[in-house]
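Narrative summary of target 7.
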Amino acid sequence: MKKKIITVILAAAMVGTCLMGCGNGSKTEHDEAAVTLDIAYQYGLAYAPLMIAQEQGMIEDAYEELTGDEVVVNWNQMSSGADINTGIAGGSIQVGFMGIAPAITGVSNNVGYKIFTNLSGQEHGLMTNDTSITSLADLVGSDKQIALVNIGSIQHITLARALVNANLDAHALDANLVAMKHPDGKTALESGSIPCHLTSSPYIFQERDNESLQEIPGVNEVFSVEDSFIVGVASENLNAENPQLYEAICTAIGEAIDYINENTEEAAKVTCVYDGNDEETELQYLEKGYYSTQTKGVFDLAVFMAENGFIEKAPEEFYDLAFNNVTGN
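Modeled conformation, tokenized:
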């Protein structure tokens, strides 16, 4: 059963104390405000472990086990990694989950966070409703729009890597890009409002099942399902000033990932409510994803981004991007 976080106000107890003549109502050590944690995340099955952690109160439980105290966790769904960067930079968000590309950009731009965990890898694909488009080269020099979640997103960088892999310029399609949330991009593609959509699970699976759409090759060749797609970032202030809360978050995300990997059918019953799929379809989608706390390909991606002008300077080592507890590359 999901644990309910209750902020306890000891007003009644204080009144009782006053009536007994034991003081003038001054605060006790128990009157301190509850610890709060603001988390931001985005759309799609790539965030499935967060649905589990939220539903089962895993962060709250881990923090209570470590400290004996309670934490109030506020979950905020946002449209893009750029929005999360703004929230963390402004101090309204302490933890965010986003595509690896905007996370690298945020660290590079000194937003004030580092990667604290991997979350998932997922399939990506570039779909079209235009039968005349059979390759990336067909799009270069055209005015055909490509919807993806945001400029500078992992989808954008993946498209750039696919272009380079096809011996084309990494920025050859920058002018064709239109920022849309994943579900909005899917709707626009299926309605014919835009000709192309680069997306991830579960939307890519749904689009592949649509016989009126076809996939443009190139994306899967440069981004595998095991590559880090979604990562968690935590503010450096949180890491330094509340190490127990930081540890509780790391523990809870690891437990949520383990739950998905070990109890996939049960997990699907939870996540399908968030995604709007039936349980059977949700299970199929979950089984196609890759959920792990260990990062993969992060440093190489950062080098590519620097070499192609997406960030100013490549990191010197992996731990310029991630906290020391993170395993991977």
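The longest strand covers residues 113-121.
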